[in-house]
Write a structure and sequence with these properties.
Layout: E1 3-8, H1 9-20, E2 24-27, H2 34-45, E3 52-55, H3 59-72, E4 76-80, H4 82-87, H5 89-97, E5 103-108, H6 122-126, E6 133-136, H7 140-155, E7 163-168, E8 176-181, H8 184-191, H9 218-247, E9 254-257, E10 264-267, H10 272-285, E11 290-295, E12 297-299, H11 303-310, E13 315-320, H12 331-340, E14 348-353, H13 363-377, E15 386-388
Parallel strand pairs: 2-3, 2-4, 4-5, 5-7, 6-7, 10-11, 10-13, 13-14, 14-15
Antiparallel strand pairs: 1-8, 6-12, 9-11
Length: about 400
Amino acid sequence: MTKMVAATGNEAIANAMRLADPDVCSAYPITPATEIMHYFSGFAANSQVNTEMLLAESEHSAMSACIGAAAAGGRVATATSSQGLALMWELLFIASGMRLPIVMAVCNRALSAPINIGCDHSDSMGARDCGWIQLYSENAQEAHDNMLQAFRIAEHMDVRLPAMVCLDGFITSHSIESMRWLPESAAREFTGRYQQTTPLLDMAQPASYGPLILSDMYMEYRKAHEQIMCQVPQVVQDVADEFRRISGRSYGLFESYRLEDAEVAIVVMSSAAGTTKDVIDQYRDKGIRAGLLKPRLYRPFPYTEIGLALKHVKAVAVLDRSDSFGGSCGPLFLDIAGALSCQTERPVLVNKIFGLGGRDYMPEQARQVLDELLQLTQGAPVTSLKQYIGVREAAC
């Protein structure tokens, strides 16, 4: 029987890590992810896990240690945020290129400069093309469940790629929510024992990690990496189906909320989806067919499935909690546009940048977006493809 608890997102992540019982955790403190390792180091100190804790001198060193431990044949986990993830950027490609199934929690936080500790997705979006699997979480329950599933996904023998589980800094990481944890035995059976593949310390079967590959083979290696990524969505769905059977909670590649017959829809990730759902319910009560699509698996991006889910909608607003300076639109918008590009019939698309640096996302902003979409369905022209909502125009 599942246990009802009150926990923060960080505590939920740490508890999932405890249940997975990694061999090595190497980390460096950074707000708002520090608390995850505070909790987990307590588990290690109290012998609740058999984990070797390594406090590195930087996030770059922390990921280096994670790579070494994973290559040696261990289950490895860590956590970071913002500038910490940015400092790891060089190593992220190495971890994925070596097919090392490291699992990392990322408390999404804005990047400097100027210094800001509020939530936005600029950190993980900056790392979206590093070859890591990315899962995004709406709330603490999803963060906990995604973290448990991430070990199974990353370590799957058809995948063996690193995965990051993203949750909104402070909004999710530090807010207390009621949630359900799996029974210890069921959770530990679900995560299972770690299976080594060509461990570096196996002297009987020597393996080479990170060799020099020049132009005669490098492109083929990258294509092979992409082919492995293409297998990830099916593994994600299979793991989610197994998790549903033991938890009663359903997950997919994305969540569709009142989308099947929607004429207008909002696409948004993580905690902002909850606020948007409430507003969609209000519009439904008025007879307006509004819906929502919330991506869960962002890398690899399920283009085909999302394109099919949105093709019937007349107008869609994609809300990005990050920006692409000098680019046409935000990163999520570009992926949604790509998903719809192959559809014969597709909606009118607009992009909204919101919530940067922890700026509040309010219900009235969701209402403004839906009202604009309704105007577009009635023939109003798109005056601007990319707009900022909730920004003080006079300060720009």
